[in-house]
């Protein structure tokens, strides 16, 4: 089992290297630019990978590497989102965690993820279609016209997924989440 934190933030990685809890538990810290190919990211079902990458293009590159057909792992995304108080580290992967998590909490999250049963969230074709159109900038009414889905159903799919992953508020955060999910999905 490999536990790994990948980031494009050098200061964050340096702070992790100084943290005794993280280092004593053999958690690897890797700068995203070190991952040039899929070779390193050949993962097993028992691996836990935390991604904290603020550069959208770089994050999507790494997520695309993780979405290869031979890659299966537990993914935890750190992001600038508001998490509802009822959301805990559980459910299907990927997990979404606020970027301001403390190192001790981050280690607890890693430990809980490594002990959990591997369960990757699969999205329906309708959900993926809605995500794709939303990421391309189409409004709900335009998605209704192009895909033929009822507007209420589109809003329902958006709210269901926001609730499942503990998202609330800001639509820009939800859009970022939909883009990340789309990069992780092998069917898209």
How would you sum up this structure, described in words?
- The protein has a 5-stranded parallel beta sheet.
- The protein has helices at residues 10-18, 20-24, 56-66, 103-115, 125-135, 140-147, 151-164, 171-184, and strands at residues 3-7, 27-31, 48-52, 74-79, 95-98.
- With 188 residues, it is of the alpha/beta class.
- It is 45% helix and 13% strand.
- It has 8 helices and 5 strands.
- Helix 3 (56-66) links the parallel strand 3 and strand 4.
What topology, given as strand order, has the largest sheet? 2-1-3-4-5
Number of strands: 5
Protein structure class: alpha/beta
Helix fraction by DSSP (H/I, runs of at least 4) = 40-55%
Radius of gyration: 17 Å
Distance between the termini: 28 Å
Tally of contiguous helical segments: 8
Give descriptors for this structure.
188 residues; single chain; alpha/beta
Short summary of the structure?
By secondary structure, the chain is α/β, with parallel strands linked by helices.
Task: Outline the secondary-structure elements.
Blueprint: E1 3-7, H1 10-18, H2 20-24, E2 27-31, E3 48-52, H3 56-66, E4 74-79, E5 95-98, H4 103-115, H5 125-135, H6 140-147, H7 151-164, H8 171-184
Parallel strand pairs: 1-2, 1-3, 3-4, 4-5
């Amino acid at each position: 089992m490999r536990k790994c934190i990948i980031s494009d933030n050098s200061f964050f990685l340096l702070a992790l290297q100084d943290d005794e809890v993280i280092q004593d538990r053999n958690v690897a810290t890797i700068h995203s630019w070190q991952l040039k190919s899929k070779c390193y990211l050949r993962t097993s079902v028992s691996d836990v990978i935390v991604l904290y990458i603020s550069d959208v293009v770089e994050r999507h590159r790494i997520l695309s590497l993780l979405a290869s057909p031979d890659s299966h792992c537990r993914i935890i995304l750190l992001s600038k989102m508001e998490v509802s108080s009822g959301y805990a580290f559980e459910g299907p992967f990927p997990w979404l965690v606020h970027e301001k998590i403390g190192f001790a909490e981050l280690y607890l999250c890693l430990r809980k993820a490594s002990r959990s049963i591997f369960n990757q969230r699969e999205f329906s074709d309708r959900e993926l279609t809605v995500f794709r159109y939303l990421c391309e900038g189409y409004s709900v009414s335009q998605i209704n016209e192009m895909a033929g889905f009822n507007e209420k159903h589109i809003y329902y799919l958006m709210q269901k997924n926001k609730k499942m992953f503990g998202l609330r508020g800001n639509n820009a955060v939800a859009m970022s989440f939909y883009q990340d999910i789309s990069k992780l999905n092998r069917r898209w």
